[in-house]
Each structure stands twice: as structure tokens, then as C-alpha cells.
Design goal:
It contains 10 helices and 10 strands. By secondary structure, it is α/β, with parallel strands linked by helices. It has a domain at 1-67 and 185-234: Rossmann fold, CATH 3.40.50.300. The strands form 2 sheets. A 6-stranded mixed β-sheet has the order 6-7-8-3-9-10, sandwiched between helices. Bound molecules: adenosine-5'-diphosphate (ADP) and magnesium ion. The site of adenosine-5'-diphosphate has 11 residues, from strand 2 and helix 1.
């Protein structure tokens, strides 16, 4: 579903990603693990076109999409949940969701709509008329994910969904992400929280200093203490 092949990404003159390659198969949850500053967010931003790579390619369902604009990629079926939850603080929960809904999706029986995201995140139904800015941190994360779902993505890029959340909320969010997986969504998950990421993922990559250092199944990642100790906080 997603093939990132040897991308190099810069912020101005600063070279941040060095030949990063990764693949995500349909239906998989794949994690990108790494310490703060390792290049996780930049990798997601390179895929979604916010920081287009200078070299290398990104393919989605076989089509080259390198450097395409984010809105084009949203239409093609890639959802993106940034690390800072960019919800609209002045709009209600309901309006945050309504503006993200794909026009054509409303009359599909499958696909996401407000009712379905409320089933997944019941707290959002309770707070439908509250302003986004008045939600707790965890609720804002849920709203950010719910909003991405309203665009009916096939592939969801999730940037540190559990960051800053209390353990109980982490668990609640993990359960929801597993439900998305059961529903057939493909997910690329950037995380520093190794335990959480390994509970959710089928496979993973470790990134450090803008380079992929390891790739393997979750069992291989769990077993490889040396790699975890070297590149991750464990
Ligand atoms: N907007 C920016 N301008 C310049 N450098 C940046 C910018 N954003 C991130 N960086 C640098 O790029 C590197 C990778 O950052 P990032 O992708 O945010 O890492 P992570 O998400 O793994 O914490 C870091 O060295 C960071 O300082
Ligand atoms: Mg980041």
C-alpha cells in the first residue's frame, strides 16, 4: 500500500532524512520507532507532502505520489494525524467532524460518518456541542483521529497518538486503534512509546539520526535488546 524508497529530506540546508525506506502492506499496522529528534515526524511529513523529499520516491497503491500536495493525498486516501492535534479550537466537536467529511461518503453504507466515529469514540458524542479547545488533551487526540477518519482514508499516518496521555487513556486509545485495524485500515504509526507501539503493530522500523537502523517483526524487535538499547529509550 505504501512504499517509501530512499528518501532524503531537508529543512533548508539541514539534511534530516538519509535514504529512508519502508513499506506498509494492506491491513498492516507498522510502527516507526525512534527517540525524540530521530526523524519520525519528518518521515510522515515527507510522505504526506508537507516536507517533500529532495531525492527518492513515495508510492501509494503503486502510484508515485512523491511531493504531492497534502490535500491531493487526502483525496487519494491518505489520512494524517499530526503530533500537535491541529483541531479547530473555536469550532464545536460536531463542526470539526462535519468539515472533514468527504461529500460523497455521506451516502455510502460503508465508510466513516459522524455516527460511526461516535460509536468508536463515545465521549465525542457527549461533547458534540462543546468547542474543540475545551476538550482534554486525550479527547483532542481522539477528535484529531476522528476527523482524519471522516475523510475515509485507506492509509492512516498517526504521529505519536499516545504522547502525553495518562496510562488509562493510552490503553483506551490503543483499543480504538486496534478496532481500526480490525476494520481493515492500514496504519503507519510513529512512536517513542515502544511498549504501546509493539502492542499495536505487526512490524516495525527503528529510525535514528534520520536513518533506518533496524526493521523486523514485533517479535524480532522485542527479542533484540541490543538494538532497542542503542536506538530507543527502554
Ligand atoms: N521545522 C524544522 N526546521 C528545522 N529542523 C527541524 C524542523 N523540524 C524538525 N527538525 C529537525 O529534524 C530532525 C528530526 O526531527 P523530527 O522529524 O521532528 O523527529 P521526531 O519526530 O522523531 O522527534 C531533528 O534534528 C529536528 O531538530
Ligand atoms: Mg515527532
Amino acid at each position: 500500500m505504501l512504499e517509501v524508497d530512499g528518501i532524503h529530506t531537508y529543512y533548508g540546508l539541514s539534511h534530516v532524512l538519509f535514504s529512508v525506506s519502508l513499506q506498509v502492506e494492506p491491513g498492516e499496522v507498522v510502527c516507526l520507532l525512534g527517540r525524540n529528534g530521530a526523524g519520525k515526524t519528518t518521515t510522515l511529513k515527507s510522505i504526506i507532502g508537507l516536507t517533500p523529499p529532495k531525492q527518492g520516491s513515495v508510492r501509494f497503491k503503486g502510484e508515485t505520489i512523491t511531493g504531492n500536495e497534502p490535500y491531493v493525498l487526502a483525496r487519494k486516501g491518505i489520512g494524517y494525524v499530526p503530533d500537535a492535534r491541529r483541531i479547530f479550537a473555536d469550532l464545536t466537536v460536531g463542526d470539526n467532524l462535519a468539515i472533514a467529511e468527504k461529500q460523497s461518503a455521506a451516502d455510502w453504507d460503508y465508510g466513516w460518518n459522524k455516527e460511526k466515529v461516535f460509536e468508536l469514540f463515545p465521549v465525542l458524542r457527549e461533547k458534540e456541542s462543546h468547542n474543540g479547545g475545551h476538550l482534554s488533551g486525550g479527547e483532542q487526540k481522539m477528535l484529531a483521529i476522528a476527523r482524519a477518519l471522516m475523510g475515509n482514508p485507506e492509509l492512516l499516518l498517526l504521529d505519536e497518538p499516545t504522547e502525553g496521555l495518562a496510562p488509562l487513556l493510552v490503553q483506551a486509545l490503543e483499543e480504538r486503534i486496534l478496532k481500526l485495524k480490525e476494520a481493515g485500515l492500514t496504519v503507519l504509526l510513529a512512536e517513542q512509546n515502544v511498549k504501546s507501539a509493539l502492542r499495536l503493530s505487526d512490524r516495525g522500523y527503528i529510525i535514528d539520526n534520520g536513518r533506518i537502523r533496524f526493521e523486523g517483526t514485533v517479535d524480532e524487535l522485542r527479542a533484540n535488546e541490543e538494538v532497542r538499547g542503542k536506538y530507543l529509550l527502554v
